[in-house]
Amino acid sequence: MAVTIATLQTNFEQRFQVSPQTFYFAPGRINLIGEHLDYNGGYVLPCAISLGTYAAVGKRDDSLMRVYSQNFADSGIGQIDLQNLQLPAQENWLRYVQAMIQVLVQQGHPLAHGLDILIQGDLPNSSGLSSSASLELLIGTILNQEFQLQIEPEQLARDGQIVENDYLGVNSGMMDQYAIALGQKDQALLLNTKTLTYEYVPLQLHDHQIIIMNTNQPRTLAGSQYNQRRKDCETALKILQQHVKIADLCDLTPAQLDEYSSLLTQPPLLTRVQHAVSENQRVLRAKQVLQQGDLNTFGRLLNASHVSLEQDFEVSGEALDTLVHAAWQQGILGARMTGAGFGGCAIALVPQKQVADFIAQVGQIYQAKMGRSADFYVAQSAAGPRLIQEG
């Protein structure tokens, strides 16, 4: 169900017994193409989406940050004292909020008073749409605006990664936070994950629609094989660096990979590198075809990306493969898993006139094979985190 300002205001008043003063939104993101490259020095092509995380905010006179999430109602109101910042022991959504506050305070940004914050999102949790990064950037944007801290979007993105890496133990790259912080409508973000330089690529889909397909198989990065895939890549890189002058796997050209492939005899190192090198080339090709408005080729690149993730990097799994293979059967332009894999979501590029039939057909195939239903979301590209209403 769509989140509205009226809904946020009503929920805030019921929870805190006062009226909110400001309202905010931070999008989620999908990665169009370029998976598992953000820690291999490659290019990625994400975009911010119209699904995301909302907040209603009211000022307090004391040092307490009181935070409530409609999505985790059983947790009640979390309370964070700015004068005694200690991360709560429990592993839940409040840790993201408190960690973001603590990062900004440690950087010397003054937070003069507390806030009441009600959070409500329409992103499915643990789905690969970056609900955690959306929450981090939402909190960062609220603090930046409410206390006039004048922090640039790129810095808020880096702060979000600090939260993930240093406070929550997830060895993630920068893509999610950058894609959200720098989001623009009808644009994808071509991000060089090595240099963090970026450019916008037109995302004009015309009579096609991005459909997000949720396996409803949650994934937890810290508890999945994500860190093992990173370890495989690091091991392969060390072997190759003894013979080739490269800093990251994505520095390797296809010709160099062919020349030095005999060094990677320990399974599954060769296939891991094959994915990184070929996927990086697909991202650069995707930039070209989107600039040319060639959606047909872009769709084929999506398909090729999934094949590589399924067979070489082995991060899709039965649920994602079932959705994507079912999507391919519908005569659409392309489909692939998005995010880290091991569950979560896939995306499909579908003609608008076909959307209803596509959802029905793919949903039926998935239900029959997996014994549970998939959820489908129609998504548009969106601008980054922002104040959406005052007063």
Automatic annotation (TrEMBL):
<dbReference type="InterPro" id="IPR006206">
    <property type="entry name" value="Mevalonate/galactokinase"/>
</dbReference>
<feature type="binding site">
    <location>
        <begin position="35"/>
        <end position="38"/>
    </location>
    <ligand>
        <name>substrate</name>
    </ligand>
</feature>
<dbReference type="InterPro" id="IPR019741">
    <property type="entry name" value="Galactokinase_CS"/>
</dbReference>
<keyword id="KW-0067">ATP-binding</keyword>
<feature type="binding site">
    <location>
        <position position="164"/>
    </location>
    <ligand>
        <name>Mg(2+)</name>
    </ligand>
</feature>
<dbReference type="Pfam" id="PF10509">
    <property type="entry name" value="GalKase_gal_bdg"/>
</dbReference>
<dbReference type="InterPro" id="IPR006204">
    <property type="entry name" value="GHMP_kinase_N_dom"/>
</dbReference>
<dbReference type="InterPro" id="IPR000705">
    <property type="entry name" value="Galactokinase"/>
</dbReference>
<comment type="similarity">
    <text>Belongs to the GHMP kinase family. GalK subfamily.</text>
</comment>
<keyword id="KW-0963">Cytoplasm</keyword>
<dbReference type="Pfam" id="PF08544">
    <property type="entry name" value="GHMP_kinases_C"/>
</dbReference>
<keyword id="KW-0547">Nucleotide-binding</keyword>
<dbReference type="InterPro" id="IPR014721">
    <property type="entry name" value="Ribsml_uS5_D2-typ_fold_subgr"/>
</dbReference>
<dbReference type="InterPro" id="IPR036554">
    <property type="entry name" value="GHMP_kinase_C_sf"/>
</dbReference>
<feature type="active site" description="Proton acceptor">
    <location>
        <position position="176"/>
    </location>
</feature>
<feature type="binding site">
    <location>
        <position position="226"/>
    </location>
    <ligand>
        <name>substrate</name>
    </ligand>
</feature>
<feature type="binding site">
    <location>
        <begin position="126"/>
        <end position="132"/>
    </location>
    <ligand>
        <name>ATP</name>
    </ligand>
</feature>
<feature type="domain" description="Galactokinase N-terminal">
    <location>
        <begin position="11"/>
        <end position="59"/>
    </location>
</feature>
<keyword id="KW-0119">Carbohydrate metabolism</keyword>
<keyword id="KW-0299">Galactose metabolism</keyword>
<comment type="function">
    <text>Catalyzes the transfer of the gamma-phosphate of ATP to D-galactose to form alpha-D-galactose-1-phosphate (Gal-1-P).</text>
</comment>
<dbReference type="InterPro" id="IPR019539">
    <property type="entry name" value="GalKase_N"/>
</dbReference>
<feature type="binding site">
    <location>
        <position position="69"/>
    </location>
    <ligand>
        <name>ATP</name>
    </ligand>
</feature>
<keyword id="KW-0418">Kinase</keyword>
<keyword id="KW-0808">Transferase</keyword>
<feature type="domain" description="GHMP kinase C-terminal">
    <location>
        <begin position="289"/>
        <end position="361"/>
    </location>
</feature>
<protein>
    <recommendedName>
        <fullName>Galactokinase</fullName>
        <ecNumber>2.7.1.6</ecNumber>
    </recommendedName>
</protein>
<feature type="domain" description="GHMP kinase N-terminal">
    <location>
        <begin position="96"/>
        <end position="183"/>
    </location>
</feature>
<feature type="binding site">
    <location>
        <position position="132"/>
    </location>
    <ligand>
        <name>Mg(2+)</name>
    </ligand>
</feature>
<dbReference type="InterPro" id="IPR022963">
    <property type="entry name" value="Galactokinase_bac"/>
</dbReference>
<dbReference type="InterPro" id="IPR006203">
    <property type="entry name" value="GHMP_knse_ATP-bd_CS"/>
</dbReference>
<keyword id="KW-0479">Metal-binding</keyword>
<dbReference type="InterPro" id="IPR020568">
    <property type="entry name" value="Ribosomal_Su5_D2-typ_SF"/>
</dbReference>
<dbReference type="Pfam" id="PF00288">
    <property type="entry name" value="GHMP_kinases_N"/>
</dbReference>
<dbReference type="GO" id="GO:0004335">
    <property type="term" value="F:galactokinase activity"/>
</dbReference>
<keyword id="KW-0460">Magnesium</keyword>
<comment type="pathway">
    <text>Carbohydrate metabolism; galactose metabolism.</text>
</comment>
<feature type="site" description="Transition state stabilizer">
    <location>
        <position position="29"/>
    </location>
</feature>
<dbReference type="InterPro" id="IPR013750">
    <property type="entry name" value="GHMP_kinase_C_dom"/>
</dbReference>
